[in-house]
Write a structure and sequence with these properties.
Blueprint (H helix, E strand, L loop, with lengths): L1 H31 L3 H50 L1
Length: 86
């Protein structure tokens, strides 16, 4: 249960973080640049954004996944105690 919850949470948060970064870069390029500059900036900026943000997003997603997994295990233990005691 811990591994499944941790993995699912980490994958979801990682996808959201990377997706948000890509959408932000696209918005930034489209709003502030024009024509071919958008294509060039996005094609050059996206790999750079991926190189910089991937380790940060993966680390944050891992930590958040571990926290959610621990909360799930602890709440499961508390719920079992309540059911067994009552």
């Amino acid at each position: 249960m811990f591994e499944k919850t941790t993995l699912r949470t980490a994958q979801t948060l990682y996808a959201l973080a990377i997706g948000t970064g890509v959408i932000w870069l696209a918005w930034l390029c489209l709003v502030h640049l024009s024509g071919w500059a958008v294509i060039v900036a996005f094609c050059l900026g996206l790999p750079l954004l991926a190189l910089v943000s991937t380790p940060i997003a993966a680390g944050g997603a891992l930590l958040a996944g571990l926290v959610v997994g621990l909360v799930t295990v602890v709440s499961g233990l508390i719920a079992r105690r309540v059911r067994a005691g009552g």
